[in-house]
Amino acid sequence: YDAELNSARERKVAIENDIREGLLRDEFDVWYQPIVDARSQEMVGVEALVRWPRRPAGALPPDAFITIAETSGLIHALGQFVLRRACRDLQPLSDLKLSVNISPAQFRDPDFENKVADVLRDSHFPAHRLQLEITETYVLENPERSLSAIGNLKALGTAIALDDFGTGYSSIGYLRRFNFDTIKIDKSLAGLVDHDEQAAALVGGTIRIASALGMTVVAEGIENEKQMKLLSLAGCDRLQGFFFSAPMPIDALRQHRQRRQG
Ligand code: C2E
Ligand code: CA
Ligand code: CA
């Protein structure tokens, strides 16, 4: 047990060092996954997702290093890199909105709003095209800071999305006071709607309440046509998932967009 614990800890320290060096050596990229309008199926935005293809010890998926970046504080530099790169890449694609994931540690930083304002200014990126995605757990554990950060970010013109909705324990009514612009229904729920009636009814109810509260509802993790149809009928405004497109590099996104505009 000790040996395993040690090696887990050693692995964590090794990845931590890899992230630090990777940032200096430009080993990270940002990929983009289309978000489509549920009615027209037109791409209306993208979600930025970090990638680490040039890590010398081998590529790692975000789930394997984001937590380590968080606990080590490196998420501030990594998150800032993602935000800058994404704003720069998307700036010319003026018909698309941009969603960027924000870690709890970034959100906790009292200077975070200023950092976002700096990036918007430097990249000439219109604030109203940017949406920041934050998770439920953080918001519920830090309601005061969340309320003030959300207020400040909205004052900049930036929208706030609640990510991974349905994985936590809170009700949508409770979340109302945070004034989210968007909720993203987690892929674990989207993946149930095509074969679990109870889950489908729950998702349907959530969508109706969120819509009644004026929030835009995005369903993520859509992998097949049946899920797409059920979630559109249930009233989702936007859809995202492999059924439409996997995340891709900026060059591929430009080509994808041109093909669609045909
Ligand atoms: P997330 O924010 O929920 O992002 C969506 C994840 O679902 C992405 O995984 C995406 O590739 C994947 N996905 C998209 N469509 C489908 C689908 O139809 N089916 C399935 N099974 N999966 C789908 P990815 O890129 O591996 O990212 C995993 C998580 O890592 C993200 O979950 C997010 O929490 C975190 N992450 C990724 N990039 C960043 C970042 O730049 N900053 C921060 N703080 N977190 C990030
Ligand atoms: Ca997300
Ligand atoms: Ca999510």
Compile the SSE list and pairings.
Elements (H helix, E strand, L loop, with lengths): L1 H23 L4 E9 L5 E9 L14 H7 L2 H16 L6 E5 L2 H5 L3 H12 L6 E6 H6 L1 H14 L2 E7 L6 H4 L6 E4 L1 H4 L6 H16 L3 E4 L5 H9 L4 E2 L10 H12 L1
Parallel strand pairs: 2-3, 3-4, 4-5, 5-6, 6-7, 7-8
Antiparallel strand pairs: 1-2, 1-8
Helix pairs in contact: 3-5, 5-7
What's a quick, concise take on this entry?
The protein has 262 residues and is an alpha/beta fold. 49% of the residues lie in helices and 18% in strands. α11 links the parallel β7 and β8.
Q: C-alpha Rg, in Å?
A: 19 Å
Count, helices: 12
User: What ligands can be seen in this structure?
Assistant: ligand C2E, calcium ion
Oligomer: single chain
- What is the spatial order of strands in the main beta sheet? 1-2-3-4-5-6-7-8
* SS elements, strand count: 8
Major β-sheet profile: 8 strands, mixed, barrel
**Helix residue percentage:** 40-55%
Arithmetic mean of pLDDT: 93
Architecture, CATH level 2? Alpha-Beta Barrel
Overall structural class, as computed from helix and strand content, comes to alpha/beta
| Strand coverage percent | 15-25%
Unreliable spans are none
Q: Given this structure, which CATH class is correct? A: Alpha Beta
Distance between the termini: 59 Å
For CATH, the homologous superfamily is named as: EAL domain
Q: What is the H/E order?
A: HEEHHEHHEHHEHEHHEHEH
- Outline: globular
**Count of distinct structural domains:** 1
CATH topology: TIM Barrel
Q: What does this molecule look like?
A:
With 262 residues, this protein is an alpha/beta fold. The chain has a single domain (2-261), classed as TIM Barrel (Alpha-Beta Barrel). It contains twelve helices and eight strands. The protein has helices spanning 2-24, 66-72, 75-90, 104-108, 112-123, 136-141, 143-156, 172-175, 187-190, 197-212, 225-233, 250-261; strands at 29-37, 43-51, 97-101, 130-135, 159-165, 182-185, 216-219, 238-239. It has an eight-stranded mixed barrel, surrounded by five helices. Helix 5 (112-123) runs parallel beside helix 7 (143-156). It is globular. The model has no long low-confidence stretch (mean pLDDT 93). The chain binds ligand C2E and calcium ion (2 copies). One calcium ion binds next to strand 5.
